[in-house]
Amino acid sequence: MGNPYWGVCPCLPDSLILHFFLREAQFMAYTMADLCWKLSVCFFCYQVVSGRVKKEGHYIAAVYEHESMLSPNPTALVDRQSALELMGRNLDIYEQQVVAAARQGAQIIVFPEDGIHGFNFTRSSIYPYLDFVLHSHFVKWNPCREPYLFNDTEVLQRLSCMALKNKIFLVANLGTKQPCEHTDPHCPSDGRYQFNTNVAFSDDGVLVATYRKHNLYFEYAFDTPPEPDYTLFDTPFAGKFGMFTCFDILFFEPAVNLIRQYKVKQVVYPTAWMNQLPLLSAVEFQQAFATAFNVNILAANIHHPTLGMTGSGIYTPVKSFIYHNMESYGGKLIVAEIPVTTDYETHSESNERFREDLHQSCQTFTSTSPADQVCFKEGEESPGRVSEKGNKQLPPIFYAEMMYDNFTFVPVWEEKGELQDEKRFFYSKLLLQWSSQGSLLSLGENPRGSSIIFWK
Fold it and tell me: 309 with 440, same domain?
């Protein structure tokens, strides 16, 4: 081709020019290699600081206990725009928490049941709060990128965009609607289904799963789906996840059958759970379920202490990261790294509590809702009561109501020994050896002859 510098420096031979360019290219190659190495080191340090470096065989999960903005009058009829404004305030908080979770390296985040729209609606009053969603495994839809495909999908669009922008799997709960024909024997008289629905989005914003709550708890605004949904979605970091909602966890369908039939090891669980002692405390039941079925559970609850609603966590069969707070307000984000595999022994229970220390008083174990009091002052006996033989001080008893059954409890203060109680129709005896570590163990009975052991 001749000398490229001809006319600029015609005195230089082509061989010298070529040698110069080779040296310059070699220098640039070394410089780029050094720069790439430095950048990779810096990126690794950033990953460590931000929590994005994960152990092999583990993933980082997040759940958010949300103090939702509620409608002051949920039975009132409002227009769609007013409903969107209320839901938008909750979604603004969701978006902040998604960003915070992603910064800590979370690969999936779960939000609670009723967290976007609230509760205590009628069938008519909830209608403006409902999004349309197509319950189909055959339609691949990205609401953030394709908002024009369906009407009334504003909430789905925002959730999808949160997942897409932050590259995170996202699970949330909302009310949905679906028109039906009167030829459908299950179609309601108003011509539409209204479902309590979980939705899952992939980290690119695609709607990958929907689940319609099957076991409704006095939710007159919603319909029960004709058949139980067995909902799964796949992730690149932990394989398949199953999901169900709140009250479902107490029933064989679909919760137990989903886990057994599809060999599910990861569960996402939005809930709006009102704690009721002695057996229906949120963290107690969630932890027990994870241990009993040898699964990981990502459980997100609503936070309304005045309604007895708190208790969220990330649970494995052997370790739990939990939050239970009946004394203060505001949401709580929990982020934890957990193993994908759950096939290990479950006897070495270890818990990490995201909570402040609470006084071990009656109020600690009491719902603040007047209708659901657990520790009744009039039901307490004197701390100085003695046994029938008169030679031993007995601990005071307290009462608890669970699902309309009354239980009488005797707290266990000693770490080893025998506890027995004889009632009119039955006799209970408990041999125990345990380490208290600031917890409460008690033996409970009810007139039907049911005996339980309660640990707090």
Answer: no
Please tell me whether residue 5 adopts helix, strand or coil conformation: coil
Specify if 5 maps to a domain: no
CA angle 316, 302, 164 (to 5 degrees): 75
Task: Tell me how far apart the alpha carbons of residues 324 and 274 are, in angstroms, rounded to a whole number.
Answer: 12
Structure tokens at 57: 């065989």
Residues taking part in catalysis: 113, 213, 246
d(CA 165, CA 155): 16
Q: Helix, strand or coil for residue 339?
A: strand
What pairs with residue 428 in β-bridges?
421
| 220 and 177 within one domain | yes
Q: Per-10-residue mean pLDDT for the chain, 456 residues long?
A: 49 58 62 58 51 78 99 98 99 99 99 98 99 87 97 99 99 98 94 98 98 97 96 98 98 97 98 90 96 98 97 96 96 98 58 40 31 33 47 69 72 62 51 56 55 51
If one counts the domains in the chain, the total is 2
CATH of the domain at 208: 3.60.110.10
Using the 3D structure, point to which of 353, 385, 418 is the last residue of a domain. Answer: 353
Flag whether 46 is in a domain: no
Same domain, 139 and 225: yes
The DSSP element (H or E) to which 102 belongs, if any, is helix 80-103
DSSP designation for 246 = G
Instruction: Find all residues with CB under 8 Å of 49, minimum gap 6, and list them.
Output: none
d(CA 279, CA 273) in angstroms, rounded, equals 13
Count of CB atoms situated within 10 Å of the CB of 345? 7
Sign of the four-CA dihedral 37, 43, 45, 48: negative
8 A C-beta contact, residue 297 and residue 320: no
Predicted TM-score (pTM) of the model is 0.74
Same domain, 339 and 398: no
Strand partners, 408: 399, 445
Q: Find out whether 212 and 134 touch, Cβ atoms under 8 Å.
A: no
Please provide the DSSP assignment of 179-197 as one string. Answer: E--TTSTT--TTSEEEEEE
Closest to 442 measured CA to CA, from 360, 378, 323: 360
How far apart CA 278 and CA 47 sit, in angstroms, is 43
Structural domain that includes position 410: 376-455
CA distance 254 to 251: 7
Do 300 and 423 lie in one domain? The reply is: no
Q: Are residues 175 and 274 in the same domain?
A: yes
